[in-house]
Amino acid sequence: MTKPAVVLLSGGLDSATVLAVAKTGGYEPHALSFRYGQRHSAEIEAAENVARALGAAEHKIAQIDLRLFGGSALTDDIAVPKSRSEAEMGNDIPITYVPARNTIFLSFALAWAEVLGSTDIFIGVNALDYSGYPDCRPEYIRAYENMANLATRAGVEGARVHIHAPLMELTKAQIIGLGSSLGIDYGLTVSCYEASPSGEACGCCDSCQLREKGFSQLGIPDPTRYQATRHK
Length: 232
Known about the structure:
Blueprint: E1 3-8, H1 13-24, E2 27-35, H2 42-53, E3 58-63, H3 86-91, H4 101-116, E4 120-122, H5 138-151, H6 153-156, E5 162-164, H7 172-181, H8 206-218
Parallel strand pairs: 1-2, 1-4, 2-3, 4-5
């Protein structure tokens, strides 16, 4: 009998891989996505396509609006950085960081997991190719898991919650290799911070560069649809 699990699904490459990992690991994945005021809705359509293609038991889309606070190039009138070098990406926390986003998303996932009777939550955070986000680090995931087991009825009653981050120590190339072995069609995913309404990638934001580098290192065709103005 499969165990229910909540899988945070953005519609990007990493979260699609995590959904496939959960499914092949014997879990019944319940996918959770967010309309949070991000720059484009293409990733929501991608999440719907991925959830359907990978056989999620259920897919919910939560509506919140982080534009109320702003403070990020993804939720405010701030330019998305383009064509940065790897050194520049690794220097500081980038302006594409959305304040407390993973904490908010995990809180929603935790609530749904309790309702489902699940003790397992999957998230596609990564500590290698992660562009410096503080809420993508292993110490953050450990701290959140500890908090979750103090803050929920399930945790207090002994049904310990586990936050699974199976991609934490993988490079982008390794993630793509893993997902490809699980049959993921990465052409369904959208990772770009500034994708067109139809989901075409800009090709030069941090996320696009990390994704493109991963396919290149692995030596397999990149199925990403790029805008005509990419790299300009």
